[in-house]
Structure to design on (482 residues):
């Protein structure tokens, strides 16, 4: 069974083509097919597509490159060459077996065996693919790297020895250009960065290494590729670069804090200034009883939003909403944590969660401020949270518990970065704002695949507006059936 998600595509009223299993459609069954029909609305840049059921996106994924309209220039000097760079993971095991074993045991799954750059781990021990990806460059030319993190479970640092990277776009939204030697990119995020070939010759290491600032096991292998100047002998030594330590929080924050929307006349930042729904969602882990989980001593690790571990339905939610089918979901997802505690301090004695298929209802064109708060239950952790159907503005972030009386005073409502996937800092919070101008049922989940499997997901139900242009289009005739 397959489902294909177009990650980050802003498709209005056509949720039937969004892709996540049992949210907007049922899986495409073996031997069957389904035509995704959608219109890309006002977007250009780098996005990607991937399987959106279980852990199949480990190998089923690819880039979506949306070019500007003919005659519309980039808001920066046009690069000489453009190159897709997909960061991923290599697994010796069948990833479906990995997650199934973890769910059965109640414990965390094994980590991947290597990281990859365009499918190659590079020269690492125990791996047959020794060469690695090679990008050939010429002195004086500029190269725009369309970088995508397609890894299942790990945020990654990316850098190139001896070269700076000028960041010009994230998640298919232009940003004010800035120069850095290290990019941090979470699963589900994309970053366009320009590197200029300033050397006369040589070979230079490109590296993708893990970022994890919590006491959690990760695949610690660095994927290695090569920036190779034309005319340089293959036997020439490669200039190396030191990768940041996995817990280099300051390096990650330096990159994240540098991101700003262009907010120009051609590319305005339309940040909602008035808020109709002010939501506060805790995101994190929990522990529930599991009598069959022998490895977990009768308990299992789960994940939740506002203490609700999401239960996937067997009928697609959008289908149930459109046809008014009862008993598939409820619309009582809590807008605030049901139980208050020191979210980033000592955890409560009861680590259990509730479970259900709960949605949060939004009126068409209403505005939302959503604060995503990490919790320290089991361990604080950075959660890359992805919202389908919308871009949003990241207006603020901080460490510790969000303070609604103090923290909004520091929000950036002028040129905050616009994204579709945002990292909730370890032991901290992030605030986003968006306008609910896309009717349908839209999935929001952690893009660490293990956390999604454990239940760190929910969905927004955006009601129809007035008339057909503000309403969900009818489902296509070939919509897969459950």
């Amino acid at each position: 069974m397959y489902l294909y998600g177009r990650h980050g595509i802003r498709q209005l009223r056509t949720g039937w083509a969004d892709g996540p299993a049992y949210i907007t459609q049922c899986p495409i069954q073996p031997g069957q097919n389904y035509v995704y029909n959608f219109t890309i609305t006002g977007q250009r840049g780098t996005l990607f597509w991937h399987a959106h059921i279980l852990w199949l996106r480990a190998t089923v994924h690819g880039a979506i490159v949306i070019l500007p309209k003919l005659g519309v220039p980039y808001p920066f000097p046009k690069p000489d060459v453009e190159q897709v760079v997909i960061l991923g993971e290599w697994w010796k095991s069948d990833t479906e077996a990995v997650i199934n074993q973890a769910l059965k045991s109640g414990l965390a799954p094994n980590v991947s065996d290597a990281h990859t750059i365009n499918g190659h781990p590079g020269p690492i021990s125990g791996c047959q693919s020794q060469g690695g990806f090679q990008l050939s460059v010429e002195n004086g030319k500029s190269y725009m790297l369309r970088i995508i993190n397609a890894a299942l479970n790990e945020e990654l640092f990316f850098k190139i020895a001896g070269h700076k990277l000028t960041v010009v776009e994230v998640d298919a939204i232009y940003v004010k250009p800035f120069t850095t030697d290290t990019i941090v990119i979470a699963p589900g995020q994309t970053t366009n960065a320009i590197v200029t070939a300033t050397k006369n010759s040589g070979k230079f290491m490109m590296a993708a290494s893990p970022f994890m600032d919590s006491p959690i096991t990760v695949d610690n292998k660095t994927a290695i590729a090569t920036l190779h100047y034309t005319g340089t002998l293959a036997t020439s030594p490669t200039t190396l670069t030191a990768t940041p330590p996995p817990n280099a929080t300051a390096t990650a924050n330096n990159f994240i804090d540098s991101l700003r929307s262009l907010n120009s006349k051609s590319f305005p930042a339309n940040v909602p200034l008035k808020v109709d729904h002010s939501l506060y969602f805790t995101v994190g882990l929990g522990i529930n009883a599991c009598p069959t989980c022998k490895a977990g001593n009768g308990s299992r690790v789960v994940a939740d939003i506002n203490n609700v571990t999401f239960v996937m339905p067997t009928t697609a939610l959008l289908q149930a909403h459109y046809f008014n089918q009862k008993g598939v979901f409820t619309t009582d997802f809590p807008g605030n944590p049901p139980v208050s505690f020191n979210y980033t301090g000592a955890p409560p004695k009861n680590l259990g969660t509730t479970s259900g298929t709960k949605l949060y209802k939004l009126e068409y064109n209403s505005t939302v401020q959503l604060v995503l708060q990490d919790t320290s239950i089991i361990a604080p952790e950075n959660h890359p949270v992805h919202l389908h159907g919308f871009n949003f503005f990241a207006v603020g972030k901080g460490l510790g518990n969000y303070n609604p009386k103090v923290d909004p005073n520091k929000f950036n409502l002028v040129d905050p970065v616009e994204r579709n996937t945002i990292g909730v800092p370890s032991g901290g919070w992030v605030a986003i704002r968006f306008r609910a101008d896309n009717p349908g049922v839209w999935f929001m989940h952690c893009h660490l695949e293990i956390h999604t499997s454990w239940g760190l997901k929910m969905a927004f139900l955006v009601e129809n507006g007035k008339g057909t242009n503000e309403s969900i289009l009818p489902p296509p005739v070939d919509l897969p059936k459950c």
